[in-house]
Write a structure and sequence with these properties.
mainly beta, 1 helix, single chain
């Protein structure tokens, strides 16, 4: 199953989808599972919305009972480009928990040994290039990683602290250099 490509910057900025959280069994996380229905929540975006030439795709794949999103493609810094990403809107408005105590995000990932990024935009983000970011390495075997919010840095304001209550979008991004992307994510949780 392929995800829709965004063709313009306007569509990119207007098309965030909010999806409601599902409280995980241990009550210590807000779980956003990948499943057969995930395609309607996640979107593929590339630097082509601003004239870049990176090319890729997102597929929803299944291994037994496990669904996962796979971001593949060619990231190119030519023509001021340099990213492909898988992104969704996030809202904690319908959760039963108070999101002020959220500590970070947990992912189950595998990939081709490259470093990837998490980009988080908040209600304070003033442009598509204003986000908080951190990195992770995706190796060949599935691995659960925790990324605490205090490790995220805002691109345009290094002294700003990520406030989880203001999160509005979440992206898994191949970014910043010329390389082949191949990263899969089967779990996305926000943990307390």
């Amino acid at each position: 199953m392929k995800f829709n490509h965004l063709l313009t910057l306007i569509l990119m900025s207007l098309s965030f989808l909010a999806f409601s959280s599902k409280i995980a069994a241990d009550e210590g996380t807000l779980d956003y599972p990948f499943n057969a229905d995930s395609g309607r929540y996640w979107q593929y975006v590339s630097d082509r919305v601003m004239g870049g030439v990176s090319d890729g795709q997102v597929t929803l794949e299944q291994d037994g009972d496990m669904y996962y999103a796979r971001l593949t493609g060619n990231v190119s810094t030519a023509n001021n480009g340099g990213f492909i990403q898988l992104r969704a809107g996030v809202s904690f408005a319908n959760t039963e928990k108070d999101d002020k105590n959220l500590q970070g995000v947990r992912l189950n990932v595998r990939g081709n040994g490259e470093t990837y990024y998490i980009h988080i935009r908040t209600n304070e983000s003033w442009s598509p290039s204003d986000y908080y970011a951190t990195t992770f390495k995706a190796d060949a075997e599935w691995k659960m990683i925790d990324l605490p919010f205090n490790k995220f840095e805002r691109k345009w304001s290094k002294d700003s602290v990520l406030d989880p209550k203001k999160i509005r979008s979440f992206g898994i991004v191949a970014y910043g250099k010329d390389y082949i992307s191949d990263v899969s994510v089967s779990t996305l949780e926000f943990y307390y």
